[in-house]
Write a structure and sequence with these properties.
Strand content: 15-25%
Largest sheet: 3 strands, antiparallel
Strand order of the largest sheet: 1-3-2
Number of strands: 15
Helix content: 25-40%
Distance between the termini: 156 Å
Order of helices and strands: HEEEEEEEHEEEEEEEEHH
Oligomer: single chain
Structural class: alpha+beta
């Protein structure tokens, strides 16, 4: 019992000593409640105009926040509830990502972003994405991934990625293509798009042609007279085509006969000379 009293007393002295931990300068314009960023665990010392931990708040984070205890890993102390709470994550789920300060967010490469006047949420840094399995922000590989040098982007002939402002991007003259998971030459893209447009226009034209033909032939609003007129036109067209083909055949026959006659005439004298 005696030793327990000593331990408690020593802890109390340490708490008092730690409570005087000096933080940042007081700023009432930025932090209107008490001049300190930590509204719950610290207050402004009017003499030194420096923020200090309140009595009993001995555990300090980032020299800005004070707490009465150190929480286990992946937890943070909540002054409102007076207990340790699980850290928030960089998910898109608003029930999981709400926060107030960076240390509320789990893992590395994540920060608490002030999205609007009231809302804060944990957001992964550029080049990182939330992984639901680990509940942490993981490095993105390839396009838009985090990098320091070009080699971090798996640079090769297929991907054509370079490091730009710590982010993997396509080199000049290339555009990212999900089909090849790499950067494709802009000239190839233009050529492929041009061919695709041509095929689309062709199918549209064929569709309009056959659609018009079917509507004329099987139109529901066409009466017997219209159908007879269309049939008459079709017969006349076929007959005209037949006459043209017959005329062409006759011309070819006459031309062939003329050629034979001409050859026969020219061969006559030659045969006479040979006889002589």
């Amino acid at each position: 019992m005696k030793y327990l009293s000593i331990v408690v007393f020593v802890g109390h002295l340490l708490s008092i000593g730690m409570s005087q931990t000096q933080l940042t300068s007081c700023d009432y314009q930025k932090y209107t409640v008490n001049g300190c960023e930590d509204e719950m665990g610290a207050d402004c010392d009017q003499t030194s105009q420096m923020c200090r931990c309140k009595p009993g708040n001995w555990y300090v984070i980032d020299k800005r926040f004070c707490f009465p205890q150190q929480c286990p890993k992946h937890q943070y102390y909540d002054h409102n509830f007076g207990r340790c709470e699980p850290q928030r994550v960089g998910s898109l789920n608003s029930e999981l990502n709400y926060c107030r300060y960076d240390f509320h967010c789990k893992g590395e490469h994540v920060r608490c972003l002030h999205t609007n006047e009231w809302n804060y949420r944990c957001v992964c840094d550029q080049g990182f994405t939330y992984d639901s399995n680990t509940q942490e922000c993981q490095l993105i590989r390839g396009f838009n991934g985090f990098c320091v040098k070009d080699i971090d982007c798996n640079l090769n002939e297929t991907r054509n990625l370079i490091c730009v402002d710590k982010s993997c991007q396509c080199s000049q003259g290339f555009t990212y293509s999900y089909d090849i998971d790499g950067c494709e030459d802009n000239e190839h893209i233009k050529e492929r798009d041009s061919q695709a447009r041509k095929m689309i226009y062709l199918f549209i034209g064929l569709g309009l042609f056959f659609g018009t033909a079917l509507s004329l032939k099987f139109g529901t609003n066409s009466g017997p007279a219209t159908q007879q007129l269309l049939l008459k036109r079709l017969v006349e067209q076929r007959q005209k085509q037949h006459e043209q083909q017959l005329h062409k055949t006759n011309e070819e026959t006459e031309s062939f006969a003329t050629d034979i006659e001409s050859n026969a005439t020219s061969d006559g004298p030659i045969n006479s000379r040979e006889t002589a």
